[in-house]
Amino acid sequence: MAKGRGEIELAGIVKSYDGVTRAVDGINLKIPDGAYCCFLGPSGCGKTTILRMIAGHEDPTDGEILIGGEDVVGLAPVERRTAMMFQSYALFPHLTVRDNIAFALRVRGMAKAERLKAADAMIEKVKLGELADRLPNQLSGGQQQRVALARAAITEPRVLLLDEPLSALDEQLRVQMRAELRRMQQDLGITFVHVTHTQQEAIALADMVVVMEKGHIRQAGPARDVYAFPKDRYVAEFLGGQNVFTAKVEATGAGEGFVTVRPPDLQPIRVPVAPGRAPDAGSLADIAVRRDDVALLKPSESVDPALSTLPGRVRALEYQGSFVKVMLDPVGRDEFIAYVPERTFFATPFQVGDLAVAAWQAGHARLLA
Ligand SMILES: Nc1ncnc2c1ncn2[C@@H]1O[C@H](COP(=O)(O)OP(=O)(O)OP(=O)(O)O)[C@@H](O)[C@H]1O
Known about the structure:
The chain is of the alpha+beta class. Helix content is 26%, strand content 34%. The strands form four sheets. Strands 6-7-8-3-9-10 form a six-stranded mixed sheet, with helices on both faces. Strands 13-12-11-14-20 form a five-stranded antiparallel sheet. Helix 3 crosses helix 4 and helix 3 packs parallel to helix 5 (141-153). It binds adenosine-5'-triphosphate (ATP).
C-alpha cells in the first residue's frame, strides 16, 4: 500500500443533529498514516460521532474529511477503504470463524477458493488456527474480538475504526487484548482510530491521544504529552495522576523563570513559567503537581530549599501494591494526594491523623492554562 494512504485529516468538522446542538463542534486534526490514535473523553463528548463520520456511516454538517489526501465526504465506507469494528463484534452466529472472516470478501464478489485462502492467511496472522471451524458461541470474549478484528482487516482497509472495542471484556482480558490490539496494528501497518472513555487504555495504546470535551478537542498529542504535560485543568483531571489546585499569583519574578503563588491559607510556593507567559499578579492560576512527584516529610525534617512544600494532615491511606496512596488535607477545594513508593512509605510510615509535609521539586510543578 502506498505510503500516506491512511493519513486522516479532519478540517473544520461540525455535526449537528437537530440543527442546534453540536455533537461535534469544529474539529481540526491530522492523524498520521499508520498511527494508533485514541479519542478519549466522557460519555456524550462526540467521540463515536467522529468515528462514524470517518468511517462513512454519517456525514458531517460542515467541514472536510480527507483520507490519504482525498476528500471522502459522501463516499461509502467501501469506497473510502475504511472498516469498523463494533463493541458487540456483530459476528454471524451460524457461521464458523473462517466463514465469518471470509464473509466480507464474499460480499465483494471474490471467488470461494480465493476468499477461503485469504481467510486462512488472516487466521494465521491473528493466531486463530485451532479455532477456525468453531462457531462464535464456542469462543471466549477475547477470541471473538480477534475474529471481529480479522474480519474487519481482511478487506485491507487503510483505516480501521474501533468503537470501545474492549468494553465488553473483564479487566484482566482487557489488559491482555489491549496488548494484542497494539501488536495487530503494528503487524497490519494501518491507521487505527479507537474510541474509549478509559484513560489507561488510551495512554497504553496510542501514538496519539485526543482528549475531547463537549464536541471540542482539548488536547491532542503523544500519550506522554497529554499525561505528563496537560494543558489545562480538564485534561489534567481527566487523565488523572495529578494534583490540581487553584492559587493566587503573588509575584511574577521577572526573568527568573518562576512565579510565586499562594494556595488558600498556605505559604507561597514557586512554579516555573515560560518566558513571557507569567500570569498577572493578583490573578488566580491552576497549578498541577504529579502525585508521584510528591514526597512526604515528617514536620521535624529539614527541607531542601529546592523543594516546594505544603503542610497537611493525613486524611486516608490506601495500599496499592507498588505504592501507597496518601490523601492529605485538601488545598482550598481541591484534593491533594501523594503516591509514595511502597518501600519508601513503610521505611517511615504515616498514620491517618499524622501531620506531614508534602514536598516536590519546585521545577516539577506546572502552571496550567
Ligand atoms: N442520531 C442522533 N440523533 C441525535 N443526537 C445524537 C445522535 N447521535 C448522537 N447524538 C448526540 O450527540 C452527542 C455525542 O454523541 P456520541 O455518541 O458521539 O458521544 P460519545 O462521546 O461517543 O459518547 P459514548 O461514550 O456515550 O458513546 C450526544 O449528546 C448524543 O446524545
